[in-house]
Design brief:
Immunoglobulin-like; mainly beta; 437 residues; 1% helix; 7-stranded mixed β-sheet; 3 domains; 6-stranded antiparallel β-sheet; 46% strand
Length: 437
């Protein structure tokens, strides 16, 4: 390795089922880890100071830091820390009085490094910390200085995409990778990206350590969407798992403090409308509107399906979360036959329920479907929509209609989308499935 020192690394991992003797906390507990808590990996010690919690999280456990808390990394005398990389599901909000801290990574040269929180409320979590260190008696290897010109980029399937520019100081070869190759692939040598499907992936450029430079990496988040269409033909569907697809937003009224109402909730894989911001109900009117949908002239059963869930915070949900249809050349008409899921007494949200709305009378026409959300300064509920589908034929054969595990107590609807008694006769729908009684 010539005159330069060989770097070593130590990784502190908080995602598993045990973490340095700490108690895994969750729920509404007010407990914190002992202050201080000392964690050890090889030659490196990590001391947690102030209020921290090792927390049970849905997508892997994490270590949470609260206002005023910090972490101290230390290596044996005769060694120096050159890099600390913090991994988090959300941007890690920390700072350091020594070295340089940016975007979750500390760089510098110190035997002991203190990284403190930079928050005023709530908390900032990490899932792991990787410490790079070396002997202080040998010359320092250089920083590879890998950096993309943008940390976030977006592209549309079928359209040309120009990747952010990578700059580097290292003389080592760079290898490009994509975290989700179903969304986009990347040429390992050139960094050229091919967009494949809607979703989100992380494009990473990695350089190995060599005789002169430390190893390192840089990445950007790539958000891929599908092209929006003005006109579609049945059968037509949008899942709303990762994007609005060809639906568009019409913000009729956004009061001060609101920049949007409708968003994609990637955790629950749905389109979500809410005007509750900073613990305040804000007046609004916002529509989620489909493209024009061309319906065939065939005289067959044709329905609109969607799953929806509501919160308990509406003033009057049947007036503030409504469904509308417009025929080309006509005006919007409210569909009053839809039913709303019931919110359990001890819950804030209802479960998702499938709605079936008859499109009888619309044969051969071109229609738009609109989900209208309204809020006031007294009430701002949350409305969630997923698995939108317009089709003819037997809905039980449509694999895009995602019904949960069959529930014999689930609401029953007729083909007009009206909620009926479970003992009703005729063609009925329950759990998104059609049956005859």
């Amino acid at each position: 390795m010539g005159m330069f020192a060989q770097s070593k690394t130590a990784k502190f991992d908080f995602t598993g089922e045990s973490a340095y003797g700490m108690t895994l906390l969750s729920g509404s507990t007010k407990e914190y880890n002992a202050d201080p808590t000392v964690c050890t990996e090889g030659d490196v010690t990590l001391t947690l100071n102030g209020q921290t919690r090792w927390w049970k999280a849905t997508n892997g456990n994490e270590l949470r830091f609260y206002k005023g808390a910090d972490m101290t990394f230390k290596v044996p005398e005769g060694n120096v820390i050159t890099k600390v990389e913090l991994t988090a599901k959300v941007p890690a909000k920390f700072e350091s009085a020594v070295g340089t801290y940016a975007n979750g990574t500390w760089t510098g040269s110190a035997n002991s490094v203190v990284i403190s929180t930079n928050i005023t409320e709530k908390n900032t979590p990490i899932s792991s910390a990787v410490v790079t260190y070396q002997s202080s008696s040998a010359p320092m290897k250089k920083d590879p200085a890998l950096s993309f010109s943008e940390t976030t980029a977006s592209g549309v399937v079928g359209e040309a995409f120009v990747a952010p520019t990578l700059t580097k100081a290292t003389t080592a070869a760079v290898v490009y990778t994509s975290s989700d190759e179903a969304v986009a692939t990347v040429n390992a040598e050139t960094g050229e990206v091919t967009l494949l499907a809607a979703g989100e992936t992380k494009i990473t450029a990695t350089a190995a350590e060599n005789d002169e430079y430390n190893g390192g990496s840089a990445s950007y988040t790539l958000i891929v969407t599908t092209p929006a269409l003005d006109v579609v033909q049945e059968p037509y569907s949008e899942s709303f798992e990762t994007e609005f697809g060809s639906f568009v937003l019409d913000n009729v009224n956004l009061s001060e403090g609101l920049s949007y109402v409708w968003s994609i909730d990637k955790k629950y894989k749905c389109a979500k409308a809410s005007a509750f911001v900073n613990k305040k109900n804000l007046p609004s009117e916002s529509w989620l509107v489909s493209p024009w949908i061309e319906l065939s002239c065939a005289e067959v059963e044709r329905n609109l399906y969607f799953d929806h869930a509501v919160s308990k915070y509406f003033g009057n949900v049947s007036e503030e979360a409504t469904l509308w249809i417009k025929v080309e050349g006509g005006d919007w008409t409210q569909i009053t036959s839809i039913a709303y899921p019931e919110v359990p007494q001890d819950k804030s949200f209802s479960p998702f329920e499938t709605q079936a709305v008859s499109l009888a009378g619309y044969e051969g026409k071109k229609i738009k479907v609109g989900f209208k959300y309204v809020s006031t300064d007294e009430a701002a509920g949350t409305w969630e929509i997923r698995n939108f589908k317009v089709c003819s034929g037997d809905p039980s054969g449509i694999n895009e209609i995602n019904a949960d595990k069959f529930d014999v107590n689930a609401p029953v609807y007729n083909l007009a989308g009206q909620r009926v008694n479970a003992n009703a006769k005729g063609i009925l729908i329950q759990n998104g499935k059609k049956f005859i009684k």
